Amino acid sequence: MFEELGSRATFFVVYIAEAHPQDGWQLPVNESEGVCFLKARTFEERRATARLCTESLGLTIPILVDGLDDAASETFSAWPERIYIVGTDGCVSYRGGPGPYEFDPEEARRHLIALLESDVSTEGT
Questions:
Q1: What is the spatial distance between Cα 9 and Cα 114, in angstroms, rounded to a whole number?
Q2: Is the dihedral of CA 35, 47, 51, 91 positive or negative?
Q3: Which of 30, 40, 54, 81 stands 20 to 30 A from 64 (CA)?
Q4: Which CATH architecture has domain 2-122?
Q5: Are 63 and 54 contacting, i.e. CB atoms less than 8 angstroms apart?
């Protein structure tokens, strides 16, 4: 989606608290895939984990990091993952379901395309 529509919309990934930290709810798959992080105790630790995840996944989307107060995560009910689309008016126009079971990037893509097309059709009015 980012590669396809990144020239027409601004994209961000917001890194929130680690869903499965070693000192929390660690899953066996995390261990087998070498994805093992401790719960961040400082913002710098969270930022470092976000950086490692970005690099290991090869992400090119700009990354924002939620503070230790988890304000973004709580405000947007983001844990463990969720897609939001904010229109040019600053209002949320799409709120995806919580991941992993209701996480639907294709649905978000369709919504974003429709939103972009409606913005183009209303330009100059």
A1: 12
A2: positive
A3: 30
A4: 3-Layer(aba) Sandwich (3.40)
A5: yes
Using omega within 30 degrees of 0 as the cis cutoff, is the peptide bond preceding 98 cis?
no
Pairing state between β 63-65 and 13-15: parallel
Task: List, for residues 60-102, the tens digit of each pLDDT value.
Answer: 999 999 999 999 999 999 888 899 999 989 999 999 998 888 9
| Lookup result for tokens 């689309």 | 85
Q: What pTM value is reported for the model?
A: 0.76
Count CA atoms within 13 Å of residue 50 on its CB side.
Answer: 22
Residue located via tokens 């983001």: 78
Task: Spell out the residues 6+ positions from residue 41 whose beta carbon is closer than 8 angstroms to its own.
Answer: none
